[in-house]
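Can't paste images in this forum, so I'm doing it all in text. The chain is below; anyone willing to post the predicted structure tokens underneath?
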Amino acid sequence: MREKKLVTAYANWVIRNRIWVILASLAVIVFLGGFLGRLSFDSNYRIWFDEEDPYLKSYDLFVKEFGHDDMFVVAFEEPQGILQPKPLEAIQRLTDKFWHVAGVIRVDSLSNFQALRGDAEGFSAEALFPSDKPVTPERIAAARSYIDQDPLVTGSLISPDRKVGIIRARIAPVAVTPELPAKVYNQLMQILDEEKARSGYEFYLAGGPITDQAFDQVAQKDMGFLVPLLLVILGVVWFILFRSILGVLLSLGISLLSVIGAMGLTGLVGHKLNVVTTTTPQLLIGIAVAGCVHMAAMFVKAKRNGLNSKDAVKESLRINLSAIVITSVTTAIGFFSFYFTATIIPLKLFGFEAGCGTLLILFLTLTLLPALLSFFPEKTPRPVFDSEWFKGFLDRLRWASIHRSRQVVLGWLVFIGIFAAFLPMLTVDSNPVSYFRSSFWFAESVHFLEEKGSGGAVYELVVRGKGPDSIKTVEYMRDLDAFTQYLAKEAPGGLSNVYSLSTVLRNVNRALHEDDPSFHTLPDDNDSIAQYLFLYSLSVPVGQDINDRFNVDYSASRVTVIRALVPTRASRENMDIISDWAAKNLKNVKVEFTGRDVLYTNMGNNVSDSLISSFAVSVVGVTVLIGLLFRSWLLGLASTLPNFLPVLVALGFMGMAGIYLDIGTIMVASIGYGIAVDDTIHFFSHYREARRAGHTAREAIGEAFSDVGISITFTTAVLVLAFCVFLFGDFMPNVYKGLLVGLFLVVALAADLSITPAVLSLIDKPRRLLARISHTPPTADADPLAVAHRTPSRRLDVESATPSPPLGPCGTPQRRLDDLATKGCEKSGLAGASESDPGKGGHGHPVPSAADVAGRSEFTALDADYAGTGHPPVAGAGGGTVFTASPAGRMGENSN
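Text version of the structure:
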């Protein structure tokens, strides 16, 4: 009772001060919007990892010891073969120009690759195709002969079929800044556009800074395209539902203000946008419009029952305020679960922005929206959800859920079992290339390298010896060479090129023996190893040396492996196989995997952990909250069922369709659960109110269907459309997130309208709960026939929400008027009707006629007399119970 008084007082306050409420709400948004200028985009790879992540720490150590592995790769195809003048001259020009790209400290290509050749006087290192010398047939023939015998070239700078040329440029660690990817990309595009106009080749780009720039571009492209598309779609849907242009402008206005406030808050706290958080505006727009549907639906219903705009707003607030607050908090819990549990930074930031945005939507829905609705024109068009066919559909669904409750529950278990069978097929994939639609330029480039080049991914491995100067010993080099040969010939994963110090020493040894192939072996003493390394460094130009292949104290060297692009799980399995081989066969060294590709591979562990922890927090938090608010642990547990089942369906569908768990799909369970539980809360809230009013469980279910069945159906439709807009994007985690959350919400709605009432009818037996209603028999002063003829018709007073006691003259619950005449009234000595006037009962009291309820909006609910008949009720049939809404806004129930 106290809660209802507070709600009524708040509704009156909003209407009484509506001008000030509007101004204050807009002032808050203007204040937050002032921080939009602070927003910036961060596409750096480090945002995907916590600073305490052990793999990131290992990578930082690798960068400190060997320099950065950050590079960009440019490739092109010549169907007639790369080893001819036209493509080689293009490589010469590009190699020279790439040295001037921002941050570049080294460029490797066929043009400047240092070929080691020996003669009787020693050996020399010379570029295969120096840019200051013409490409002649003789030089091409010599290069072809050398490439055949040097394993460092094929698979790295030219494809095995020699039709694709590859140029690799390495970035200096000190040059890596948030602005670098855009600089590198823009300079490259200018260079490559000029070369394309000259030679006609199509170029493909990949590598670290290119990946970062691709994330930046796809995020901005999707945001710029999807937000306007979503606004148009939701505007059309809103107009179809409510047939009001003003309603469209109002709902979209609330949505845009919510986005401005949420993004401004992000700028205020200093967070940066990333490819995950750019989906927040679309998400908030959908949630805001869906929230407006609940308020607007009850507002329109009240107006069509004769209330003016101000009173209709009060009625809508009275009915919706508690449920809207609860649903907003539970949705926010679903988002904040990522902020408190995720180890992936973009997910944490997404959780913060979406959670705060949801609470901001709550603020606007309870302040600005009702204040603006109070100015709505008095004439209200009939909304589409007021159609009889839809009400009839809900009526039949309600009847089936109650009378076929066991069959409904069994059917759901079978349905869920089918999808649960595919859960073992669910796998994690954090490969960044798979995050882009195949038609996006970056995905096309990587797939070109994968299919026609040498491979689309790289392993960096650190081979550590037993201490300083270890790499200068025979024991170390023999283990390194054995490992290198294993990687090149036996290791899994499609390894196409292995760059190792042992191969460089083999080349030097062969050159010192006049290019005799039989001497392509390692030197057999420590002094020779140290001398060979020194000689090689002296022989090659600055920038082409091997100083980045070992650390300062010579205790470890680095091995770079170009490999095929495979899913994360397969990559991790291959890494385990390689590590196990090294542990068993190498006695003097230890092998460590690192590099950016390895970072992304191991991010899959964080994805799995985030899924489990965020979903657990969401489920526990929502269940406890519902249990506390409804003061029933049974209802709290029951609320999990219709929303947990869609989780199994969504995850099972992913396993069945081969959709991986990644940074987008990981959010499906928590987001879907947090949003879908809103419908359950609305249903439970109206069900609880009806039970408090003295209705049986079945009657309470009927009232819940009548009050919220329509609104939760259309809010779900709005949210599904909002998420389906993601299907038009290029960032695949968001595409799959939209698809799966849409599926989740559809299944959750079906569960709310079927299994929820079925479970309620099973756990809450159909008996009267006379909560807050006296069980004391009527006093002698009471007119028994007045009570008799008031039963079973009951009117709920809007202000007190206290129903008239549904008691017969003997104080016992009565069902039907004829029961009163034959049973209850006989015991009281009262006649069922007056002999002098058949239209009156005993003592001349009038019997309510059909005219009494004429002109009122009706919804037929199942009467207990239909139990076990096997047939759904028909509106107006005998024994049915009709819930009515009078023009005064009161609810009543009449038995036909």
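The mean pLDDT is 79. Residues 825 and 831 are 7 Å apart (CA to CA).
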